[in-house]
Design goal:
elongated; alpha+beta; 264 residues; Beta-Lactamase; 5-stranded antiparallel beta sheet; single chain
Length: 264
């Protein structure tokens, strides 16, 4: 049943919960496939075993199935701890004597849906804040509020404005980012053209960047120009989620903020 199912499924059997899974589950394993086959579950998912150990105990000791919806798990399946979300159930598997000797997991990875919905909520909140706004100051305030509230995608945010004399002045969206305001960001890279510039924080000497909603700091940031009709009026500096370094979805969030500020 497991091998032919198109649902993601795996089972753990025996005292060490030897790990067996179907083809649909392979994308969740990432680089752990095919090494994971037959290995103890505690070894396969050692980075998150403590997060699900109570569920395993519920099944093996009490014989009670579990259910989780959109559980956050930082899986190390692509060489780094990755932000992922899963809805799954552990249920007991019994041997010929009727004793629980393993568990079955039916799972759906919800990562893209959860993160997309989070970003839509963020943009919706920004749109609500901008209703009836007529001044640049209020637009800036609303934008800074958004980046201070939603810190999984962007652990920190800085907003800079460029005056007519060519001087940049910055403000931090949160208090823990104030130490980064005086960083010498490469504004020249966006003054010449309307483009997003990706920055390695180590190269900028910004090693103590705020962690936002996470336990580790971002390694990269992006510099997003605020484009006027004839010239650039400012820029956003946003720390990138360290648990999704290859994610391109943040560009939609940055683009809308850029467009909103541009329109004002």
């Amino acid at each position: 049943m497991m091998l032919t199912s198109r649902f993601e499924m795996w089972l753990g059997w025996g005292p060490e919960l030897a790990f067996f899974y179907n083809d649909a589950y392979v994308p969740t394993l990432g680089k752990k496939h095919p090494y994971a086959l037959g290995r103890p579950m505690r070894e396969v998912w050692k980075e998150v075993f403590s997060d699900v150990e109570d569920r395993v105990r519920s099944v093996l000791i009490d014989g009670v199935a579990t259910w989780d919806k959109d559980l956050l798990l930082l899986l190390e399946r692509n060489g780094y701890p990755e932000e992922t979300y899963h809805s799954f159930s552990y249920s007991p598997l019994r041997n010929d004597q009727g004793r629980v000797d393993g568990l079955m997991c039916v799972v759906t990875e919800e990562t893209e849906r959860v993160i997309s919905e989070r970003r839509l909520r963020k943009l919706g909140s920004l749109a609500d804040k901008l209703i009836g706004v007529t001044s640049r100051h209020d637009v800036i305030t609303a934008t800074m509020w958004m980046f201070s509230e939603y810190r999984k995608d962007f652990p920190f945010g800085l907003l800079y404005m460029l005056d007519d004399s060519g001087d940049w002045s910055g403000s931090a969206c949160t208090q823990d980012a104030e130490t980064l305001v005086d960083t010498r960001w490469p504004f020249g890279s966006i003054e010449r053209k309307d483009t997003v510039h990706r920055i390695a924080l180590d190269e900028m000497g910004a090693r103590s960047a705020p962690v936002g909603a996470w336990k580790i700091p971002p390694k990269e940031a992006v510099l997003i120009p605020i484009q006027g009709i004839e010239r650039i009026y400012g820029a956003l500096v946003l720390g990138l989620n360290p648990h999704r370094p290859d994610d391109k979805g943040w560009q939609g969030s940055g683009s809308l903020s850029q467009a909103r500020l541009r329109a004002r």
